[in-house]
Amino acid sequence: MELALLSILALVVVASVVAAKYTDQGGNPYPFSKKENVFTTVEASFLHLIERAIGDRFKVVSRVKLVDLIECKPGLTAKARRAAMAKAKNKQLDYVLVDKETLNIVAAVDLVNNANKSGHKAQKDWFVTGALEAAGIPHIRMKVRAGYKPAEVRAAILFKLGKPEKPESRETRNRTYKPAVLSPSQAKAMSTQLAEI
Superkingdom, according to UniProt (predicted)? Predict the structure, then answer.
């Protein structure tokens, strides 16, 4: 009988220790509340803008981890693989463009806030850029500013992808509405303003 009581007492103590480990001071094991928004105001505005600009060509996926886009090349030692993935695992990209049909990765897009030098992605992350370049994924960095037009963003992104739009014929323009198309020299000038290399 004493053995049974000691066993029950030991189970109660173990259960108390485990419960205390997983609860906050109020006794709630899930001390969470809902955030109002998934995106900041700037991120949401740019998401709408980029979808209007290139949504007919690409799907836009937001907040993607770098390790979801890249993998280590074959032939690395286990130690080198762990070290490389450790550097990449906490990196995140603002948006990723994927092909609408195949869902293949096309490019990564990051917002850059140069107004606040200590702010979100104010400094270029050379590791992210180098990792994406090594994997053959274009890294487009767009400066945060008000007043972008969808045609400007489209021209800058397509220029960075090496796919500038060709001017359409007058007959096609009269049949369907399309955003304004910039000449290659205008697109190059615009991309210099909008996207960093």
Answer: Bacteria
